[in-house]
Each structure stands twice: as C-alpha cells, then as structure tokens.
Amino acid sequence: MIDDPVRLLWAAATVVIWLAFTGWTVWRFRSKPAPAAQPGSTLIAVASQTGFGDELAGMTARAFADAGQVAQIKSFAEIEPVDLTTAARVLFIASTTGEGDAPDSASGFVRKVMTGGANLSDVSYGLLSLGDRTYAEFCGFGRALDGWLKSAGASPLFDAVEVDNGDAAAIRHWQGELSRLTGSVAAPDWAPPSYAHWRLVERRLLNPGSPGEGAWHLAFEPVDGVLQWVAGDIAEIGVPAPEGGLAHREYSVASLPSDGRAEFLIRLMQRPDGTPGLASGWLTQTLNVGEIAPMRIRANRAFHGPDAATPMILIGNGTGIAGLRSHLKTRAVQGSTAGAWLMFGERTSAHDRFHDEELQAWRTNGVLTRLDRTFSRDAGDGRYVQAVIEAEAEAVRDWVGRGAAIYVCGSLEGMAGGVNAALETVLGAEALRDLVENGRYRRDVY
Ligand SMILES: Cc1cc2nc3c(=O)[nH]c(=O)nc-3n(C[C@H](O)[C@H](O)[C@H](O)COP(=O)(O)O)c2cc1C
C-alpha cells in the first residue's frame, strides 16, 4: 500500500503515462497497415522472436538516416512479394528460434512466399543472421532464407553476416557493410544501449521445500534506470563473468512500471558438478540486497499483449509464470473483463504454488476467469500443463472461437513442444497456424 500522497501521485502519473504508451503501441502495431516499399528505397525486412533483431533493424535504419538516405523497416509479417522487387535493395535481419525455425512473425512468409517460385533476379540483398552456436541448427532460418533468395535469383551484396549470441565483432562487420552501402565514413554508434544501474531491494525464496531447485523472487529499483516497459518485455542483466567483463543474460520482466520496480522469478541452476550456474548463482546467492546490478530492458514485441477486449489463455510452467504475470497485472490495471485463463504447471502443490495469493486475489476480482494448475510430482495428479489443454478441449475451442489469444511462457524443452502438440490436437494444425500468423498465438520460451 502507498500511503504517502506524493508517492501516490507519482504512481498514478506513472500508470497514466504507461497506459498512454501501451495504447499508442497497440494502435501503432495493430491498426496501421504498413505502407508499401518505396521504389528505389532500401527495405529492412526483420524477423525477430525476442526483440534483438528489431533493435538491430532500428540501428540499421538509423545508419541510413545519418547518411541522409531513407530505409524502411518492415516485419516479415507485413512483407508482400512485391515489396522485395520494388525496393532497390533489401536488407534482411533474421533470427532463428525453436530448433532451427523461423520466428513466429515469419511463419506466414515461409509458408506463402518461400514455398512459391518467386523470380527475384532483380533483387539485391544483404543478410544479417542472428543465432547461437550452442543450438544444433546455427542460424537455421537465416541460412534457409539465404538459400531461398539465391535459388530465386537474388544477388547478395556481400556474404551473409552471422551473429553468434550477439557477437559484437560480427555486428561491427555488418556496420562496415552498411557504411559501404551508404557511402558514409562516419561510423554510427553501434554500441548496444548501455546498462543502467538497478538496486536489488528484495529477494525471497518462493518454493521452500520443493523437490526442484530454488525459485527466487527478485525485485530491483532503478538507480539511474527508467521505469518504462510493457508486459512481455525482457531484461538483459550483466553478470560478472569469470574471464572479466559482463556475461549477458535475459529474463522476462514479471512486473509493470507502475509497480515501481522490475521483478523477476529466477531459478537457481546447478551445473552437473553441483556448482551454481553463473547468472542464477550470482543473482540468487552472491548479489546482496542493497547492491547494484547492471540492467537494461528491451522491447519484445513478439510477446506484447493484445488489447483489453481480447480474452487471453496464458500457459506456462516454472519460471515462465514471470512472463505471464506481467500480462495479468496489465489486465488488472486495464480493468479488463474480457477473461483470462491461466494454465500453469509445476512440481508439487505443497511447495510450488508461485504467487498463489496474488492469483487467488485475481480469481476473486475477476481478472483471472479460470486457473488450472498441474503438479507433475503430486501423487494425485502427475500431469504436465499440456494435459489441461486436452482435458479442457471443448473450453479451449470455445475461448479461441470467442477470439482469445494464446500466450505461452516457460521451457522450450518439454513444455513448449507439448503445449504446441496439444493445441494442434484440440484446434487443428491449420487453425493453430492461422493463430500464429495473426499474432494470436505468441511464445516466449527458453
Ligand atoms: C527458444 C530459443 C530457441 C533458439 N533456437 C536457436 C537455433 O535453433 N539456432 C540458433 O542459431 N539460435 C537459436 N536461438 C538463439 C537466437 O537466435 C538468438 O538469441 C538471437 O540473437 C535472437 O534474436 P531475436 O531476439 O531477434 O529473436 C534460440 C533462442 C531461443 C530463446
């Protein structure tokens, strides 16, 4: 509770600004059709799952603007084949998700455009592929896109630039290619926006006694950071690396700016030799309350919420509740009565009911219309979250029929695939594909 009137005023002002910003974002991304590519211009075509590609697209457009030239950014979801042949050149920025898969925003492009026999012999292109070598299919989508562009007759302006886990040298290489294209010698500022300072103000173990590893609730207040993000956004935290410098780790933000703090749910990871994971160990064991962590918050458009009138089905497991909680908080602030159904899976009902009080309060006041939890280690249950989808098939079809959007947050391994398979069984593969392509099935999995 806030009982200081000045703080209350500030909190109210933050909510108003935040609502205006959210409304503007929704309006901007939902209702305005993207204008067609300008003849002779540069088109920046971006397929991003977690927002890094979107950020690089913005920096790429700025490099052209700094050289007095126009470059238009379009998401793959907005690109028509004619855009590719109208622009003088196309710069593709393409990340890979899943197991070598295209980001969700590109799935319609892959299905409708990349499978057709396009003639792109007049198209010149550059390609920046984002990936991570720890995955089996490094830059799987970028490479597939490159192969398709070449087979359709398009001419590469330079060899594809592949970025391994945000590698700064590869990004500088892309910057060099852009300088060649724009004829500009002035190097634009490519340093990613720097970390701000955030103070750890609270850390609490949410699952004492759990058979799983500790799951910690952490809250940070800005020292010189800015309370500005929307549900679905991601925090990048700089963690001291053994070799010096900072290792970069990403976490779903579990709170809203109107809370006055950035909250997280972080699971302590154990390495096979029993030592704690680098980032989770530092955040849950080494960093003390009162100390500072370097952090910045990045927009993650692919996981932004629908408007308040759209019912939501939120599905997740483990620490994935973090990314879903910020959406439920948004619903509470909006006073949305459209309905929200949370399906959540953890290990034991005795120890792993994360944020239970808050969820029960939302059940009571109607923010949460349905709450179904599964507990895989409970003798009477033993189910994973995807079991709810199949058991409640009729209700899931009814919600989707009424326009619900589906949001999934949590583990890639096990949960995301299982949920996807259950949704396919219940809704049908084609209907599920349409939901992806219309932005009504969104995933933030890791
Ligand atoms: C769930 C998940 C799956 C991923 N799968 C792959 C993969 O199969 N191959 C790869 O090279 N990188 C993979 N990555 C790494 C991303 O491509 C990389 O982090 C990239 O910088 C993300 O860019 P974006 O934020 O624009 O989507 C994966 C990342 C996540 C979170």
From TrEMBL:
It comes from the Bacteria. Pfam families: Flavodoxin_1, NAD_binding_1. Coiled coil: none annotated. The chain crosses the membrane at residues 6-27. Keywords: Electron transport, Flavoprotein, FMN, Membrane, Transmembrane, Transmembrane helix, Transport. CDD domains: SiR_like1 (cd06200). Residues 193-306 form the FAD-binding FR-type domain. Residues 42-179 form the Flavodoxin-like domain. The keyword Protein transport does not apply. SUPFAM superfamilies: Ferredoxin reductase-like, C-terminal NADP-linked domain (SSF52343), Flavoproteins (SSF52218), Riboflavin synthase domain-like (SSF63380). Its EC number is 1.6.2.4. The keyword NAD does not apply. This is NADPH--hemoprotein reductase. It comes from Brevundimonas staleyi.
